[in-house]
Design brief:
Chain B: It comes from Roseomonas indoligenes. The complex is a heterodimer of chains A (149) and B (135). With 149 residues, chain A is mainly alpha-helical. Chain A has helices at 38-69, 71-82, 84-111, 118-148; strands at 13-15, 21-23. Chain A has a single domain (30-148), classed as 3 helical TM bundles of succinate and fumarate reductases (Up-down Bundle). Bound molecules: protoporphyrin IX containing FE (2 copies). One protoporphyrin IX containing FE sits between chains A (46-47, 50-51, 53-54, 57, 100-101, 104-105, 107-108) and B (37, 41, 44-45, 48, 86, 89-90, 93-94, 96-97).
Chain lengths: 149, 135
């Protein structure tokens, strides 16, 4: 038998009724689920937005350290985020943060034991999507008003 | 007495008595990781909403205004709390993603440690930046 460096592989071995071994199927992954279902779509979106915002935190750190470093460093950050790429990124990040935060509330409600049935899951899923759009737009209206005044 | 025990508890358990009493599962830290992810989520909920709107309200403001804002005691404390809890949540969250997708185990472990190191350094860096503007 080939050396296998992953101990988790041991969990992947199952046996058929005749005793012969079989590789067990994997639990949920992207290829087996219809990703247009509310359940799997909102699930993977939580993971994707969590990961994107983790990377986005680097910009938060950059902003804070530049502010601490002084006016010149801060001007560079402002130049970056005021430009086309910077603004697109900020817009994307704001939507990502709102989704992860609002869907995070959905997760916490599930953890408390509520809202597991399919109709409720669809309703809260749509509510999260709509609230994400609304809060992202509200955030940018606030930003544009602040910027213009 | 025994008739009140639910049927599920009477099933044969493959776990050792000691293992069942400790109740910590195969990862040996029980539900700690899972629970901390919930605790940090609850704390981050108001903090994140506060941060997003605070930043939006100050869109385009010059350095003088922002540096003063970051340095105000109330804002500085909330920022430091957000940084601490935020990076803890980020590190624990990414850990789970890594464990799911990176193989073999050795590489997942190294990636987890790298993430921990990055989160620690970035967290300390941003906390120091806030402290510098606050004192
Ligand atoms: C691609 C989309 C999905 C991703 C990325 C995903 C990811 C995850 C993650 C990270 C966990 C947490 C495991 C932990 O407790 O540490 C989890 C748990 C779980 N997921 Fe999913 N999941 C997805 C889709 C689904 C779907 C479609 C179902 C149902 C058909 C499902 C059923 C479950 C169940 C039952 C658990 C709890 C398992 C346990 O307690 O050990 N997941 N999933
Ligand atoms: C500092 C900002 C944040 C970052 C970088 C972040 C990142 C992440 C990451 C990477 C994960 C792992 C995703 C997965 O395992 O699929 C995660 C999970 C989670 N996040 Fe966040 N997050 C942040 C803020 C929040 C906020 C404000 C909430 C709001 C309530 C929240 C709620 C959750 C919950 C409930 C989970 C666990 C989901 C599950 O059980 O699979 N997060 N986060």
């Amino acid at each position: 038998m080939a050396h296998n460096p992953d101990a988790r592989e041991a969990l992947m071995i199952g046996t058929r009724t005749d005793g012969s071994t079989v590789r067990r199927p994997l639990s949920p992954h992207l290829q087996v689920y219809d990703m247009l279902q509310m359940s799997s779509l909102t699930s993977i979106m939580h993971r994707i937005t969590g990961s994107i915002w983790s990377v986005g935190m680097i910009f938060f750190v950059w902003w804070l350290s530049a502010a601490a470093a002084g006016p010149e460093a801060y001007a560079t950050v402002q130049w970056f985020f005021g430009g086309f790429i910077g603004l697109i990124m900020l817009f994307g990040l704001s939507a990502v943060v709102w989704y992860h935060t609002l869907n995070g509330v959905r997760h916490l409600v599930w953890d408390a034991g509520y809202g597991y049935d399919i109709p409720t899951t669809y309703r809260t899923g749509w509510a999260t999507a709509i609230a994400t759009a609304v809060m992202t737009v509200v955030t940018w209206i606030v930003a544009i008003i602040a910027w213009a005044s | 007495m025994s008739e009140h025990i639910p049927a599920v508890n009477r099933q044969t358990s493959m776990q050792s008595g000691l293992g069942r009493v400790r109740g910590s599962g195969s990862a040996r830290n029980g539900t700690h990781h899972w629970w901390m992810q919930r605790v940090t989520s609850i704390a981050l909920l108001p903090l994140t909403i506060w941060l997003v709107f605070s930043l939006a309200v100050h869109a385009g403001d010059p350095w003088e205004v922002m540096a003063e804002w970051i340095g105000r005691p109330f804002n500085a404390v909330l920022l430091i709390v957000l940084i601490g809890i935020g990076f803890h949540h980020t590190e624990a969250g990414l850990q789970v993603v890594i464990e799911d997708y990176i193989r073999p185990e050795r590489r997942a472990m190294v990636a987890g440690l790298v993430i921990k190191a990055i989160c620690l350094v970035l967290g300390l860096l941003s906390a120091l930046a806030v402290v510098r503007l606050a004192v």
